[in-house]
Amino acid sequence: MKAFNDDxxxxxxxxxxxxxxxxxxxxxxxxFKDLSPLAxxxxxxIPNGHYASLSDCDAADSALIGHLMIVAAQIAAAQGIDQSGxxxxxxxxxxxxxxxxxxxxxxxxxRPLVFNAQ
Length: 118
Hints:
The protein has 118 residues and is an alpha+beta fold. The chain is built from 2 helices and 5 strands; from the N terminus they run αβββαββ. It has a 5-stranded antiparallel sheet with strand order 1-2-3-5-4. A hairpin with a 7-residue loop joins strand 2 and strand 3. The N and C termini lie far apart (36 Å).
């Protein structure tokens, strides 16, 4: 696992230096409610170490990425959206819509989600 980046807002949330509504945390992953939710359930899942995006990962990070996905499924069940359905998405780079350069996955659910690519 990579080290924290002292200038990164998500690293500061993982270290609990910035208040956030954390819904899950272990030694590898932190999950917290998005401040500007796009769905009734909108939770961000981040690795505790600093990865700029999914493009910053390699085969050595496979277990971490897998753990993030399993935690996402567990949180979806805890939030009561596992049966109705949910989406897990990550954005990479500016064309991908990434605004915070720390790898994060959005867990979205609680309403029908329609994909509208432009």
